[in-house]
Amino acid sequence: MKRNKTLINGILLSMLIIVFLAANALRSGANNTTVDIQITAQLTSDNIESIRIEDILKRKVEIPKKVNRILALGGSLREIVCFNAADKVVAIEYREKPKTSEKEGVPQGSDLPYMLAFPQLYDLPIVNVGAGGSDFNYEKIIELNPDIIFIGTSEVQAADDLQKKTDFPVIALYTNAIGTPKQYEIFYNSLRITGKVLGAEERAEELIDIMENYFQDLNERVKNIPDSEKPSVYIGGRAFYGSHGISGTDPQWPPFNLIKAKNVASSLSDISCGMSIDKEALIGWNPDTIFISPVSLSIINNELKSTPYQDLKAVKEKKVYYVLPYCWYSYNKENAIADAYFVGKILYPNAFEDIEIDKKGVEIFEKFYGKNGKDTYYKLKDKYNAFRKVE
Fold first, then answer.
1. Domain that holds residue 42
2. Domain count, the chain
């Protein structure tokens, strides 16, 4: 509503300017009239100029050509800050607060790399309420007057409803899992859409190149390792709709796929997704090495000390390791890449002999978050006791 009023006022003001200049031109001579009116008309056009964007859901949305105030919902803030746009963000979500009112097992801002990288975001107002954080405060959003709203959603109706209720343009982005070629393709398209909205197409391509270069390096390191020399592996504690114990896993966990590891759960699905398995399945698979996403440490540590998990080969031989959480309030791509290097070094030490995990982790995080990457990496690593053997 406010945006429309501002636009109308701008048009009226421009019309008054045209009339004023035209009157002056008539007094000064007819030859100058056309020039003055053309210039003013161009200024008027610039004031109301917009572009049409097709979002990830194929919705056609008219947006301002210049975006200065951003609201990013549904986990989409993660990628927005990677476009060096943190200073344009006007609010955050409940889930992105430094601390929530909930117990262990749900994400909060101090768990999320993009919030740790830009802690000034903690001071911004919150635009949704409740533990689930799905109930938007529309009055607050309208008051904040964003130029654009990004939202991570796979539902057209959700994006349309938000746009209708706030009267601001809403762009849907892909904030779901990566891990397979199709999922990467959708995510890269989402990055390109974001870049176009923000006038940062070059940064979108840079982010894609960063990921692809790491993927190529990982592939080159393992491409000649025969399957007979690859230990079987399992990821436990993989979050989806909250934390899970060791039975929470991912059939196409990106770090495993990136180094072509033998994921014992790979037959359960052909996409990266969270699912819970029966303990009997894990006992039957009896993987050589287990990696743990430690978003609920107390649960997992107790499980590893109990029957029947104590009888697993990996537990007996002390081949259980903590990694950074790939899925924790949507998907942390930088964590997944760092995890892949760590997993590779554990499984194929000769192929990753030159890799120093902390040095590589800092490098990865700095490519996503700039100068704040180093501090963010160490804070996150220490919080989760990551890249260490479970004792």
1. 2-48
2. 3
387 close to 377: Cβ distance less than 8 angstroms: no
Name the pTM for this structure: 0.86
**CA distances, 355 to each of 255, 272, 360, 361 (Å):** 16, 26, 7, 10
Q: Give 275's strand partners.
A: 249
Same domain, 260 and 345: yes
The burial class, CB within 10 Å (0-12 / 13-18 / 19+), for 44 is middle
191 part of a folded domain: no
What does the pLDDT look like over 134-156, one tens digit per residue?
689 999 999 999 999 999 999 99
Distance CA 297, CA 390 (A): 11
CA distance 97 to 87: 17
User: pLDDT tens for residues 78-129?
Assistant: 999 999 999 999 999 999 999 877 767 788 899 999 999 999 999 999 999 7
Residue 253 lies in a domain: yes
Say which amino acid occupies 258: L
Q: Is residue 248 part of a domain?
A: yes
On whether both 40 and 55 belong to a single domain, the answer is: no
- For residue 192, being part of any structural domain is answered with no
Q: How far apart are the first and last CA of the chain?
A: 58
